[in-house]
């Protein structure tokens, strides 16, 4: 985690044209030392660039439901860190 953070910090912040081509979520199960378990979720979107290249980024849960496959707009990211996506109308 620290290595990824350092890598992201040293990467340029880019804003590029992108289209959402896929969405997925992943459930994580956690078990505490007292035997209780709980679930958490991670949310991912795959963006495609004009070049045809694709990148999957983890996004905040509050944005996951607002974005739809086929949405096109401006993606801002830094290394593997998602910053924002502004839909173009």
Strands, helices and their partners?
Blueprint: H1 2-10, E1 13-31, E2 37-49, E3 54-59, H2 61-64, E4 72-78, E5 81-87
Antiparallel strand pairs: 1-2, 1-4, 2-3, 4-5
Question: What would you note in describing this structure?
Answer:
The protein starts with a helix and ends with a strand. The chain has 2 helices and 5 strands, in the order H-E-E-E-H-E-E. The protein is globular. The chain has a 5-stranded antiparallel β-sheet. A hairpin with a 4-residue loop joins strand 2 (37-49) and strand 3. It is mainly β and 89 residues long. The protein has helices spanning 2-10, 61-64, and strands spanning 13-31, 37-49, 54-59, 72-78, 81-87.
Which key phrases capture this entry?
89 residues; mainly beta; 2 helices
Query: What's the helical proportion of residues?
Result: 10-25%
List unreliable stretches of 5+ residues: none
**How many strands, which pairing sense, and closed or not: the largest β-sheet?**
5 strands, antiparallel
Per DSSP E runs of 2 or more residues, the count of β-strands stands at 5
Structural class: mainly beta
Rounded to the nearest angstrom, the distance between the terminal CA atoms is 36 Å
Q: Tell me what portion of residues adopts beta-strand conformation.
A: over 45%
Question: Which assembly state applies to the chains in this document?
Answer: single chain
Which overall shape is indicated by the principal axes computed on the Cα atoms? globular
* Spatial strand arrangement across the major sheet: 3-2-1-4-5
**Rg for CA atoms:** 15 Å
Counting DSSP H or I runs of 4 or more residues, the number of helices is 2
Order of helices and strands: HEEEHEE
Arithmetic mean pLDDT: 94
């Amino acid at each position: 985690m620290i290595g990824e953070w350092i890598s992201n910090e040293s990467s340029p912040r880019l804003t590029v044209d992108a289209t959402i081509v896929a969405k997925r979520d992943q459930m994580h199960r956690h078990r505490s030392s007292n035997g209780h378990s709980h679930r958490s979720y991670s949310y991912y979107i795959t963006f495609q660039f004009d070049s045809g290249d694709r990148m999957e980024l983890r996004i905040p849960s509050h944005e996951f439901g607002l974005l739809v496959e086929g949405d096109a707009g401006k993606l801002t990211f830094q290394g593997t860190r998602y910053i924002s996506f502004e839909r173009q109308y």
